[in-house]
Structures are given as structure tokens and as C-alpha cells.
Amino acid sequence: AQSVAQPEDQVNVAEGNPLTVKCTYSVSGNPYLFWYVQYPNRGLQFLLKYITGDNLVKGSYGFEAEFNKSQTSFHLKKPSALVSDSALYFCAVRDIGSSASKIIFGSGTRLSIRP
Amino acid sequence: DTAVSQTPKYLVTQMGNDKSIKCEQNLGHDTMYWYKQDSKKFLKIMFSYNNKELIINETVPNRFSPKSPDKAHLNLHINSLELGDSAVYFCASSQGAGSTDTQYFGPGTRLTVL
Fold it and tell me: Is the dihedral of CA B11, B14, B15, B18 positive or negative?
């Protein structure tokens, strides 16, 4: 069965520093990977996805993520954090062999950027 | 120009009542979903419809019944509400039901059962 893990409940970073939010996955075939962000009292917003091709994927708000097949990871990164990046971040996975629309979300990582 | 909208935003009700949450998308998408987010922020899919046909039905009590009158709407009706139904319910849509399709979420409906 497919699964996704976000090992950190919370990540704290100073503004201007680089940030990383970790995600590892387990699927039976090739993965399709997604990152979403949830601001307080809002729905999830799509940031980026990896389907195939270049392992480094660029997304919204200056975020990027690196697909690493050998480590089964898809960590979210940003070179310089902003206070406005503070939010809840979800990694999600589908595998090619899964039923058409089912996507599995990680437990979420709360990112806190201090001024 | 809200892409995926839900009503109501907040719903407070007594145990045993029946309530509905409505969802509409103006993106022209074929596929719509309902998710439940619990108090620990864990997000789990409940249902999915593609072109008004039910394609995903997770292990959800049969008190929950989705209805899709057309491709742009997916409503969720809940009978005999229980305390454990308290959560935030998110509607989402995607262009199609394929594995690469990005899902776009509504703002959520916070349901509180007293």
C-alpha cells in the first residue's frame, strides 16, 4: 500500500535562512508526488508536483522540491524563508498502480518562520 | 472568481440532526472530491466523483451520502450527526481522475456537533 511520511511535526527557521520540509514515500510503482500548503482557516493550495523528468521541481512562492528515487524522498525547499511562509505543509503521493483518483496525504508539517 | 466554493463555512448543530454541505467548482473540471480533516489536521479522502459517477468510496459510515447533480456540484449530506463527525470538510476538484491531475481545494466547512 502506498504511504507518505512527514517525520517532523514542526520546523522552525529564521527569516532569510534556507528551509527544508522533509517527506518520504512508499509506493509499489513509480510515484507521483505533490506538495500543498494550508494557511490558517483556509483550504489547501497546490505548490508543486513531480510526475517525471527533472528531479528538481520548481513551484509557487519560490518553493522547489527534489525527487530522490534512491532515498524515496521528496523534500520541499526554499533558499530564503519569509515570515509569510509560516503555514502547514502537506506532502502527498499517488502511484501509477493506484485507483485513479486516490491520493494519500502526509500528516503535515507546521513551518514557523521567525522574524 | 472563487474556483472551488463551499457553503456553509461554519456549521454548528446538535447530535442526531441531519445536515448538508454544498460544493461548487467553476473550473470546468470533471472530477470532484470530499475530504475530512480531523482535529490533528490529518486529511483523508472520503468520496470522489468523475462525471457524476462515484469512483471512490472510502470506509465511511453510510450516514454520509454524497450527491452530484452535475459535474460542477458535489454535495455531502450527513444523517444522524455524531460528536465524532466534528471536523473540517474540504471539497476539491481536478481536471480528470488521472494520477497526474492536480487537485484544487475549497476553503473548507468547519462542522461542530454538540
Answer: negative
Backbone angles phi, psi at A41, to 5 degrees: 60, 30
Closest residue, chain B, to A93 (C-alpha): B99
DSSP code for A53 = S
State the alpha helices, DSSP H only, in chain A. Answer: none
* Interface mutation vs chain A, best among B99, B102, B103, B109, most A CBs within 10 Å: B99
Compare CB distances from A100 to B42, B92, B97 and report the shortest one's residue. B97
* CA atoms within a 13 Å half-sphere pointing along the CA-CB vector of A3: 5
What pLDDT digit, counting tens, does each position of A11-38 carry? Answer: 999 999 999 999 999 988 888 999 999 9
Q: What is the pLDDT along chain B (114 residues), one digit of tens a residue?
A: 669 999 999 999 999 999 999 999 999 999 999 999 998 889 999 999 988 888 888 878 899 999 999 999 999 999 999 999 999 999 999 998 777 888 999 999 999 999
Our CA-based measurement puts residue A114 at a distance from the nearest CA of chain B, in whole angstroms, of 22
Measured between alpha carbons, how far is residue A23 from residues A68, A105, B47, B54, B106 in Å?
10, 11, 25, 30, 24
